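Shape matters. As here.
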Amino acid sequence: MSSPYYRPSSYEEQQLYDHLIACRKVETPEELLERFRSLFVDGIEYSEPHILETLHKIAMSRTADEEFRFVLNRCCRILINFWWFQPSYRWAILELVDLLQVPPRGTVTFVYAQRLRRLVRDFITTEEYQALQRLAQVIEQGDELDSEAAKAQRSRHSHSEWSDAHEHRQAQGPQQRRSLRDLIHRYPYLYPHCLSSNSSDSEFDAIRHLQGERQQKFEYDLSRYVTYMVQQSNGQTRPPATPIQNPTLLSDAQLRKTIKHFTGQVERKGTYKDLAQRFLAYSSQVDSYRTFKEGLYHYLVGSIDSTRPDYGKHHFNQWLYTQLKNTLPQSDTQQLNSFLVTRTCHQLIESLVAPPQNVSNHFVFVDLINNVGATVTTGLLLKLLLLYNNLKSSLEKRLAVLYKHYEPVMDGVEWLVDSLENLQIAFSIHFGSMNLPCLTRL
């Protein structure tokens, strides 16, 4: 390394990735964690010097301050994605995430190792590392670690000689206040946008697999709990063999009301699906895009007018009317087509669930929840989703933006938690595999 700032080739980065892929095939999680710590955290005396030299070259590159985080993140994901599909190894994912915050062993004088250590310290402030922390939180709070055997397994590994990551985290002391981050495991629909940091196939597959597992588990737990509540209401009060817990953060009374809202009649006109089918039938006969927008306005404000007509009249309805009026006004006289419908629905979602940086529209969403409630507001969003199938992913992305913004705090964001809980139920009922007859009996 003749130059202190060497620009690595993609070949050198690939050499690092191939090395970890080869190691994961033959080594245990304990061995891989020790290897990872020696290579990245300590950055000295690695068992394969040519790999350490390659890493030092990457760390000394001119672009390392901007790009090293992507290299390190991919190295983490190479191990994480492999461990994820082997449930008995998932404990190692939590240890790896903790490991990146463990102080390095020994002192270094070489500029290459010093720079590497600084880049690793910087990594823990990045969005990539935050995504890893969320993933670890989801795993730690998940059902696969609920059993005593699984907890004992992690405890055993956490106190082995190769890692003091667990002790280091414990030494930092418990958090003084819970934050929204502690709830991420509850919302599988946020996983693709909060736990992932790139679009690699292996990372995408692992996150989707995790999402499917957790969504299925929630739907099973909700169905089981609803059945239990139905039995209670019918006088079957014999306690179950194993305790059945409410899988939501809603009270039993709130849960009953929410399920009734999303499965029963609304606005005295039918279910949400009934209303959507009627509007779709109407929109297939309109003579212009302007007429479609007028119909869409009445379709949506029905949710507000049936709940808080005074609020709609003085606040929300005018805002919604203005949003629709200003949407593609140059197309008002055109015949309706799929592009106009798609664009309008997407733009409404973007306006309704606006990021905090868009202060005026973001306040509309918060104010709407605080005045008509999270359930009715969720129903308003559901009306749009039932018109256009591909809109759900767009809404999830917008919610992920809100979640990340408010992630460090808990106080003052009860409105967001209520919304996330209601959406989890609404998504399960309308886009999942819930047993609807069981729900309607409630």
Remarks:
- Confidence is low (pLDDT under 50) at residues 1-8, 144-150, 159-163, 172-176.
- Residues 201-233 form the longest helix (33 residues).
